[in-house]
Amino acid sequence: MTAPVRRAGVFAALCTLSLVVPLFGPRVGAAVAGSVLLGAYVVTGGPLFDLLAYPGDYEDARLYGVITFVLAGVALGLMATAASMPQTVFVGTLLLVGYGNLGEQLVRLRTDDAIVRVTGFCLTGVAAAAAGQVATHTLIATTAPSAIPTLVFLAASGALLGALLRDVLLRSDDPIVVLTVGLLLWLLAELRPAVATGEIAIALAVTIAFGYASYALETASIAGMLTGVLLGLVTIVLGSYSWFVVLISFFAIGGLSTKFRYDRKQTLGVAEDNNGARGSGNVLGNAAVALVAVLGYAASDAGFLPHEPELFLFAFAGSIATAMSDTLSSEIGSVFERPRLITTLEPVEPGTDGGVTWQGELAGLVGATVVAGLAYGLFPEIELVGAAVIVAAGLVGMTVDSLLGATLEGPVLGNQGVNFLATLSGALVCALLVLSFAVLG
After folding, report:
1. For the residues 356-372, what does the mean pLDDT come to?
2. Which stretches are transmembrane (predicted)?
3. Dihedral angle at the C-alpha atoms of 292, 297, 298, 300, nearest 10 degrees?
4. In this structure, what is the dihedral angle of CA atoms 419, 421, 423, 428, given to the nearest 10 degrees?
5. Contact, 416 vs 281, CB < 8 A?
6. Neighbours of 282 (CB within 10 A)
7. Are strands 355-356 and 340-341 parallel, antiparallel or unpaired?
């Protein structure tokens, strides 16, 4: 057994100590955490230090990795005892990260294939988180059979986010992973999603299949794939499959558009990096607003927000229409005639931020229309006027993206920031127009 596996095993054992809180109460849990922190501070050398130390710990002869990890667990424990975080989320999060890392390290003994390692983390993390939540429910006498699918949903969402963060952060950054995963699961748990066993199984199968297809077709990196699968799973459970179809239409069509005349784009210097595979930043820049709209819809439907849930549906559609319009406009329009800067209409070099072509504008219109057509066909709440509003919102968002690109991108904003603000403008325009029509009507 290698040192990384042994270290991961010890960290997993430390995470298992989180069950002390539902078993004996927060005071005993605090005493256990204090003892571990004291031990980590006292141990400055020897075999135990070598077992638990990260490379950076040797400089000061201090187990900072263990200390920060335990402090992250203590922070979650305080949220579970002094705030409204469920103890199931607290225990499930720690077991997910601890055993997920152990599963990944065990897989590394066999292969260095990135997809296999991610799969090892996710499968082990989901199993540990689900088991931890069930054990906690049992210890505090609140187990209900109908809650099992929801626990699996929370475990899968946390595992996907944890795997994503593990892909972009250092291994010593696990405290960040713990806190971020815990906060996400707390939010999802508060929304009280109602999901059946068959529904969560199908949702996982569908989103994973689409995610792996995007990776296999080289339209998404591993981080981009994980982000897309997480967004898809949350969208299905908190929204519906109709919401997912609208979301996946952007990922599918937008991803394939990056392959459109890719050699020509490379020649012009406007091709996406990594052979067109989009990373997590690109996915989140285009879909973060849509995710917020899904969460807003679920919160409104659950009575946490005073607004009508349909308003968030239109915001969702407007943001996706913007993302689709902007992606098709840039990916298709960039291979045609010389673009013109949107603010002055002067000819500029291909790839210049804020440069537009009439072919790109037409492609953007088609993209917005596709999203509006899907929304019109899938949602009874969206009538013909609503579909027209979605098209208009998509075009407005696409134009905002070009204007921001010509004025603020580079010195003030990065590309992902521009994408986020553009999709936000599309969502707001769509929701405000619908609200205005409702008031006037």
Report:
1. 91
2. 63-83, 114-135, 147-164, 176-194, 200-217, 229-253, 283-299, 356-377, 384-408, 420-440
3. 120
4. 180
5. yes
6. 23
7. antiparallel
The identity of residue 75, as a single letter, is A
Count of residues for the chain? 441
Beta strands in 3-153 (DSSP E): none
Q: Which amino acid, residue 306?
A: P
Helices (H) and strands (E) in the chain, counts: 18, 2
pLDDT of res. 144: 54
- The owner of tokens 């609200």 is 435
Give per-residue pLDDT as tens, 94-109. Answer: 999 999 999 999 999 9
Classify burial at 333, counting beta carbons within 10 Å of its beta carbon; exposed 0-12, middle 13-18, buried 19 or more.
buried
- Residue 379, both tokens: 């949602």
Q: What is the pLDDT at residue 337?
A: 67
**Structure token pair of residue 91:** 């225990």
Would you place residue 145 in the very low, low, confident or very high pLDDT band (cuts 50, 70, 90)?
very low
What b/e sequence results for 422-431 when a residue is b if at least 16 CB atoms lie within 10 Å of its CB, and e otherwise? Answer: bbbbbbbbbb
Read off the amino acid at residue 197.
T
The amino acid at residue 330 is S
- What ranges do the domains of the chain cover? 213-440
